[in-house]
Amino acid sequence: MGEFELIGRLFRPLAEITRQEGVLLGPGDDCAIQRVPAGHDLVFSVDTLVEGVHFPGQYDPARLGWRALAVAVSDLAAMGADPVCYTLALTLPDADEAWVAALVSGLREASLAFGVALAGGDITRGPLTLTLQVHGVVPEGQGILRSGARPGDLVAVTGPLGGAAAALEWLDDPQPPSSVSPLLDCYHRPVPKIDTGRRLRGVASAAIDISDGLAADLGHILEASGVGAWLEAAAIPRRYGIAEASLEQALYGGDDYQLCVTLPSPALPMLPGDVSKSLHVIGEIRSAEGLYLQHPDGARELLTTGTGYDHFKTE
Amino acid sequence: MGEFELIGRLFRPLAEITRQEGVLLGPGDDCAIQRVPAGHDLVFSVDTLVEGVHFPGQYDPARLGWRALAVAVSDLAAMGADPVCYTLALTLPDADEAWVAALVSGLREASLAFGVALAGGDITRGPLTLTLQVHGVVPEGQGILRSGARPGDLVAVTGPLGGAAAALEWLDDPQPPSSVSPLLDCYHRPVPKIDTGRRLRGVASAAIDISDGLAADLGHILEASGVGAWLEAAAIPRRYGIAEASLEQALYGGDDYQLCVTLPSPALPMLPGDVSKSLHVIGEIRSAEGLYLQHPDGARELLTTGTGYDHFKTE
């Protein structure tokens, strides 16, 4: 038995502990088998994390496990989907059992928190890279797309923005002040907004998770929907306890994993209290193209959404 | 727009040309959406190919595209599934448009040949790695597992073995003799046995695709089914035109992508002529553990299946 097969055994608890009813056959055969409930569609997304690009070299493997699964599941939340399972393609430079065990502990914690079972995977030798594909289900036709925003819709986000970007300067600090720990949590332990996304099905006209920054990700909604928007700078939440992200970090910082959603304004007061309380209205969709920011002093700024329509996800 | 987004656009024809009816939403949103037909299960498998591990450095990108998709779809064939779509997580050291265009041409050719649409993907910067996840469907409960082989079942393969291994010594030869071109095709252009797999649903008791060699892969069936087998050396097909793989290559060479199946012997004469003609019976399942090879001189050899039960796929 090779060293990589021993490593493979370390992943077994991930399949066994969180097995969902939808997963009829997990790891160990040519394929896994999932049963999608009648009247539902399968929703899936793939994300790659490369060491040195998407996470720092020598990053804590337990944190990496949590973060990799959270980032992937966040795409399901943005569709309003119920998470079911995931596959993991892991490329490792060597068979370091302690490192892998720590990765598995982080994945396990996130698996239990998000209700997703490991359904299959592939472990190969090579430069450290994780590719996760997550599977969820939505009632037929109820997946929330990026393309449904209409003029007059409200723009809302599910929580404060910019925290992960603000955390970057503290990442290498061995003893950061306690006030920045909410920022560091935001970077190390993002929490996908699964429940909010699910409860916005049939309500939100469009949704996206904020991985590349508010301006870029709202820009994807605007592009896909053929509309524009204005935002009110003072309304953009960016407080984390007593720490605060800058407006710049909130607009352009990545890795927040809050949702940005649009919804018709009459829908807002109809939402259950806990859902509407979790939404921060920050602006409105306009028919005229462009994303504008209204400053408290009345100045209006045209924001750079930058990246254009990402037909195929990149970096 | 970044160079990686330009690269992303090169993949657009893959989603548009081969779009299957089951894919309701392809690349370009947070997730893709697939509708699994009523009475069917989703079947899926993930495979990673790393440069220098799973394919040679400087390998022709058009060949790589074909091979990557063929290898992935082969896992669907081994379940008896109908292919539907796939995702591609591509990590690239740089945005080399000509290289990517050639990769896309190989993927496109294979997509059309195997009837699978690109449903989503992720392009990242890093060492050259491809991770493909393929999705297929089978009627509920009819996926062919590794665990169903029973004593008395016949062991059969769908074609000659060892060709890819025999090709290895010719890979670097600029002008290989024409007699070895069937071997080289076997390596560069494997063809997953989709139709045979599909038509063995409800007939085969177990199946696997031969990626690691007959002994290792049949070994997985034996382990999962709790049985043994004997093989007749003279019955193992290994002729490719006028070239021939060695018995060693046929037993232990990888990358063949034929299927190894087991089936009750009364089922064989009931199969349609073209299916039974594509099966080469090479041995029989026994209740006693171990994989034995019967040589023409009567000698009986215990084969090394080597890798044990691969709960989680490795290398």
From TrEMBL, chains A, B:
Gene3D superfamilies: PurM-like C-terminal domain, PurM-like, N-terminal domain. Mg(2+) 2 binds at residues 47, 75. Pathway: Cofactor biosynthesis; thiamine diphosphate biosynthesis; thiamine diphosphate from thiamine phosphate: step 1/1. It catalyses: thiamine phosphate + ATP = thiamine diphosphate + ADP. Residues 28-138 form the PurM-like N-terminal domain. The keyword Magnesium applies. Its EC number is 2.7.4.16. Mg(2+) 5 binds at residue 212. Keywords: ATP-binding, Kinase, Magnesium, Metal-binding, Nucleotide-binding, Thiamine biosynthesis, Transferase. GO terms for molecular function: ATP binding; magnesium ion binding; thiamine-phosphate kinase activity. CDD domains: ThiL. SUPFAM superfamilies: PurM C-terminal domain-like, PurM N-terminal domain-like. Mg(2+) 3 binds at residues 30, 75, 209. One of its GO terms (biological process) is thiamine biosynthetic process. Reaction mechanism of ThiL seems to utilize a direct, inline transfer of the gamma-phosphate of ATP to TMP rather than a phosphorylated enzyme intermediate. Belongs to the thiamine-monophosphate kinase family. Catalyzes the ATP-dependent phosphorylation of thiamine-monophosphate (TMP) to form thiamine-pyrophosphate (TPP), the active form of vitamin B1. This is Thiamine-monophosphate kinase.
